[in-house]
Every structure is written in structure tokens, then in C-alpha cells.
Amino acid sequence: MKYYKNKGKVYAYESDGSQDYIIPDDAVQMTDEEVESHLDNGPAPTAMDLLRAERNRLLGSTDWWGSPDLEMTQEQKNYRKALRDLPSTATPELGSDGLSITNVTWPEKPE
Description:
Helices cover 34% and strands 14% of the residues. Strands 2-1-3 form a 3-stranded antiparallel sheet, with no helix packed on it. The protein has helices spanning 32-39, 47-60, 74-89; strands at 2-6, 9-13, 28-29, 93-94, 101-102. It is α+β, with helices and mostly antiparallel strands.
């Protein structure tokens, strides 16, 4: 692929020249450094980043327990507290795929 900038946007075209006829005259071809920077998604997530993301998802799935017309049980409160405490009590490790975590004991969700 070859990349061009035009009016604040980035466009990608086939590097074989088959799309050259649609590249606007005022488009500027990007340098290799600009392309790399544009395509870089940032650093890979850490085990703690993944733990926090999953913890936040689990907390979000139980937010409704705190609705004004409901009363949380002590078990529900304990579960949510255990989730909130995980970043300070767990020592997560990245799984072999680099996208999962191990070495975390997740609290059991009450009924």
C-alpha cells in the first residue's frame, strides 16, 4: 500500500499503481515514518490493563444492582468491592497469546 494525505485525512492506495488514476493531484505521499506513526496502535496492553478492562466490564454488568428501586445484598456489595480491589490484590500475567491474563482469582458472582 502507499499512503497519501489530503485535506487532513489519510488515504491508502494499492502500491502496484492500479489506483493511481484516482489519487487527487493535491494529495501528498506520506513518508515511511509518517505511515508507521499513523498505523501504530500504540503499545500493547499490559496484564494490568487487561485486568482493569475485564474488571470494568464485570462491574458494568452489575451496575443495575444499585438502582434506586433495588437494595444490594451484602454478597453483591462484597462482589463489587472485590472487583474494585483486584488491581491492588492481584498480580496478573499475560497469557501466551498476549491478549489474555492468567494468575487472577476472580470473585464469584452471587445469584
